Amino acid sequence: MLFSGYAYSIELYTGQENEEKKRPVSEPNLGATANVVVRLARLIPQNMNHRLYFDNYYTSIPLLVYLSKQGIYSLGTVRKKQNSKLQTTR
């Protein structure tokens, strides 16, 4: 996770991070990759206009909605076929 352009927090994958018992009840299960972002975002103060950027491997509409409800602005890249239900401009 980057904060002001620098790594703010990292997580090394060990294969156990997405187990139900490891996630607080207050956090939704948004899928393996989005759950990584949710875990790392726990460290970001809410409602302080912080911005979080990530690539299309982590981006999903439910993740963006969740972060918005937490008061965290977010921006993620998307692939054209990945979110085919989104409107496109040509």
Automatic annotation (TrEMBL):
Pfam annotation, one family: DDE_Tnp_1_7
InterPro entries: PGBD
Domain called PiggyBac transposable element-derived protein: residue spans: 4-83
The protein's name: PiggyBac transposable element-derived protein domain-containing protein
Organism: Rhamnusium bicolor
